[in-house]
Amino acid sequence: MTEHITEQTLFLFFDGRATSLQRKLIEDWLQNTANEELYFAALEAWERQHPQLSGDADDAQDRFFSYLREPSRNANPALPQQVQHDDYRFWWQRGLMAASVTIALLAGLGFLFKDTIRYRRFATDFGETRSIQLEDGSRVTLNANSELKVQRWSNENDNREVWLTGEAEFVVTHTKDHRRFVVRTRDNFSVDVLGTVFSVNDRGSKATVALLKGKVNVRYTEAGYGQKQIILKPGNVVTVNEKGNVALTSQTDPEVFSSWKKGQFVFNNSSLLEIMQLIKDNYGVTVRLTDPALGQKRVSGTFTAQSAQELLSVLAQMYSLKLEPDNDNFILISPHSNPI
């Protein structure tokens, strides 16, 4: 907290007992986005001291915002018969119009910021990784160009749910009350665990889950068959494409699926086209080939690189290619003297 806004002041605000000056100070303080996490941390602490009735938060919010958007809320009620003065009627109607505008604004803002209020977001830029420790002690390492959405608060009986876009490794802590940890990615695809270590990659047209320790249950939807599930054991790797087709394999060293944490890339008979897509996903860099046949070249091995240019330079040297910059992107050129 800053010297101006203490936790006690925020608690008074949440209780509805803050003075007009305190409310103004808090409003100005929140103009700095760096204070948002402190605000929500205090709100969560206040909620724990003042438990509310359990219920469906999504349903409650939807009903509240629907209530605000109802046209009947903006309708002008009949004026009392005793009102005789035109000037009083004028100001009464003006006040109702102002109230209607305020309600409409609240409804719109509530709809826009509902996710911001309920969830925290952690994101990485191209070429960046980030380690996060969740409130239950679980650890998440985000790969580049990825995002994790986490509930700010939940009921004690709720699952521990997070939403992933991109790629991450999860080290999940088992809780005393045996609450499941659920990672959700695309529609109708999730990974359920109690305590384990695994990685999830959900990019493009497929999702991949690799299990290092423990046991996980992967739920997905297969076209024509509805909801299905598959239980993984350590070393299992499952890939589900957008049609729900499943490929289950075993990996003697499943840690290769999170080797990116150490700045390493492990390829096993991967095509240059696949590697080009990986570079685009992780670094936001597009690689163009002068010879389309280059895309079918196969690559195996472990490579250490901290940037797209480092990785491309090694690949270019391996196959006697020329690497040239193309604005913020690159071109791989095959010399005429050494066709591939």
Break the fold down into its secondary structure elements and pairings.
Elements (H helix, E strand, L loop, with lengths): L6 H9 L4 H10 L6 H14 L7 H13 L16 H33 E5 L6 E4 L5 E4 L4 E5 L8 E12 L9 E4 L5 E4 L3 E7 L2 E8 L2 E7 L3 E7 L3 E6 L4 E5 L13 E8 H12 L3 E3 L8 E7 L3 H11 L3 E5 L2 E5 L7
Parallel strand pairs: 5-6, 15-18
Antiparallel strand pairs: 1-4, 2-3, 3-5, 4-5, 5-8, 6-7, 7-10, 8-9, 9-12, 10-11, 12-13, 14-16, 17-18
Helix pairs in contact: 1-3, 4-5
Contiguous low-pLDDT stretches (5 residues minimum) are none
List how many beta strands DSSP finds.
18
In the residues, how many domains can be counted? Answer: 3
CATH class of the largest domain: Mainly Beta
Number of helices: 7
| Separation of the first and last Cα atoms | 62 Å
Global morphology? globular
Q: State the secondary-structure class.
A: alpha+beta
How would you summarize this macromolecular structure in one to three sentences?
With 340 residues, the protein is of the alpha+beta class. The chain has seven helices and 18 strands.
